[in-house]
């Protein structure tokens, strides 16, 4: 009853299968190191049949990237419940899962280069950043953030990217430490901005007031206080 | 006596002139919007003569980018004198000068895309990042930084890039505020890391001990203390 399954795949099903296979290969090597022959072999079909579904490697790469982008954006979704620090920490855990699963492909993409630097790949990366931005704005209970708050959020997203890229390069620091550190970095960047801006200070006070005494933000505050010389 | 000056330009001199002209044009528009005809006209020579010196627009773009990279790296050089916070603040001033002078070109380059995403452009960007990294390591009085310190420095460099890019997009926050904020962000990222790592804590204590009571770091500390509820 299961013979001929490959033959019976519909067009959409076959495209989806090829995208999955390609994503698996592109996750583990830079795009220039993955060939159409390899994708065909991994999918169990002929090279001309791959070209029947995708005109070339770049279009298959972009389709795989689109799949990865949707997958990553889905991991940002977090219920609006409980303290913000713990929500952020859970999202960071899922972000590092993603980075770990797609490591070499993520590095190649984010570090740029001829095989990945098309307008479409840039647009997909920006789409994921925008989706992260909107999630955070929503978690903070804001609608249209003031320019300084927008800067803090977008800066922090770029910090999360660069921290993940550096982690991938040798994994010299445990990822759990970096996930927690990034949550703290968010508080730190917001605090620096709040030190000079009353609107930011108000937002930050409201966030910190809702944090539990044993949550990641409170823990950071206690450790920072221990660090500072008492005579300051 | 000055007639025929254009004719008498040597090969190197002509190349340098073309690079200057191209850098001026590429600084103000994305590379895809600048034509060889325009470069030829601005340089006062014929289109074929441009091709005599540079095989195509991409090679001229890369030469202009190389010039800009050297110029930017030169602005990172700062005497090893006085408090670190003030040195960083002066470097941030020169960095924002550079970003302001080359705004649209800087955005196009850093946001990537087909016209700028070659391996050579990536390598030049990484070269500038590495030079910034080495300058900071040297200012901190370190030789081979521990992994956590390296992460803080490289993360901060990427934060400076993303802050500058966001500033260029509408200039909604005064640049002087962002220059000071970035100096504070450096202290904040180091402090977060130091809260969990004794080696970082030692380095940070040594830096802060050398800071004057009215310098940017001390000012930040005072403002942050004012922000935190007293019962913490």
Automatic annotation (TrEMBL), chains A, B:
Lineage: Bacteria, Bacillati, Actinomycetota, Actinomycetes, Kitasatosporales
Database matches in Pfam families: TetR_C_46, TetR_N
Family annotation (SUPFAM superfamilies): Homeodomain-like (SSF46689)
Ranges for domain HTH tetR-type: 12-72
Species, as recorded: Streptomyces olivaceiscleroticus
Keywords from the named record: DNA-binding, Transcription, Transcription regulation
Full protein name: TetR/AcrR family transcriptional regulator
InterPro entries registered for this protein in UniProt: DesT_TetR_C, Homeodomain-like_sf, HTH-type_TetR-like_transc_reg, HTH_TetR
Segments of the chain annotated as binding DNA: 35-54
Superkingdom of the source species: Bacteria
């Amino acid at each position: 009853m299961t013979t001929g399954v490959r033959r019976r795949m519909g067009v959409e099903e076959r495209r989806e299968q090829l995208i999955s296979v390609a994503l698996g290969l592109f996750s583990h090597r830079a795009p220039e190191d993955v060939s159409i022959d390899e994708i065909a072999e991994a999918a169990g079909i002929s090279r001309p049949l791959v070209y029947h579904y995708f005109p070339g490697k770049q279009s298959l790469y972009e389709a795989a990237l689109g799949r990865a982008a949707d997958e990553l954006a889905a991991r940002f979704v977090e219920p609006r419940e409980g303290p913000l620090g713990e929500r952020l920490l859970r999202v960071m855990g899922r972000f590092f899962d993603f980075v770990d699963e797609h490591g070499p492909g993520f590095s190649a993409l984010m570090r740029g280069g001829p095989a990945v630097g098309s307008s479409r790949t840039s647009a997909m990366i920006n789409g994921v950043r925008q989706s992260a931005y909107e999630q955070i704005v929503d978690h903070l209970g804001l609608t249209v953030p003031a320019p300084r708050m927008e800067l803090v959020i977008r800066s922090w997203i770029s910090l999360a990217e660069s921290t993940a890229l550096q982690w991938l390069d040798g994994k010299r620091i445990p990822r759990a430490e970096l996930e927690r550190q990034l949550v703290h970095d968010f508080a730190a960047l917001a605090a620096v901005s709040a030190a000079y801006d009353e609107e930011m200070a108000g937002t930050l006070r409201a966030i910190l007031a809702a944090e539990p005494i044993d949550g990641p933000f409170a823990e950071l505050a206690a450790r920072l206080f221990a660090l500072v010389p008492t005579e300051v």
